Amino acid sequence: xxxxxxxxxxxxxxxxxxxxxxxxxxxxxxxxxxxxxxxxxxxxxxxxxxxxxxxxxxxxxxxxxxxxxxxxxxxxxxxxxxxxxxxxxxxxxxxxxxxxxxxxxxxxxxxxxxxxxxxxxxxxxxxxxxxxxxxxxxxxxxxxxxxxxxxxxxxxxxxxxxxxxxxx
Length: 168
Prior knowledge:
The protein is of the alpha+beta class. It has helices at 2-10, 12-46, and strands at residues 66-67, 86-91, 94-96, 99-103, 107-112, 121-122, 139-143, 148-153, 161-167. The protein has two domains: 2-46; 60-72 and 81-167, Cupredoxins -  blue copper proteins (Immunoglobulin-like).
């Protein structure tokens, strides 16, 4: 009993409990860090890679497609008659520009510059763009094969909307 009082007076017990608490917090932080790193690695490996900045081939214009390849195929550079591409930036929780008019057969590229993930998802039940979750720096390409007005939004942030008008 006397020894316990002596230790308490010196604050040893208090110091030991603080040290144990700090050690537990450090271990918990390390575990959380490993979990987050593993989740980030899984997300980045499943995200599409940025597409090439080239015009689509005439065969790509005949049907809608989603391009996630990082290296261009030889036909992507071959046709000077193919409509040129159009780019939309995702930044500050908005599509910019929000409305784009393109010719039929044009490939539109959306690039996420926000630090959070976004999608490009058509909202009119048409054959329109439908991406997976795009991490920061990732892109999604969709070639519009038919004319019309295509409305889309981010399925994670539905207030983010945009429109593609496709003409002949």
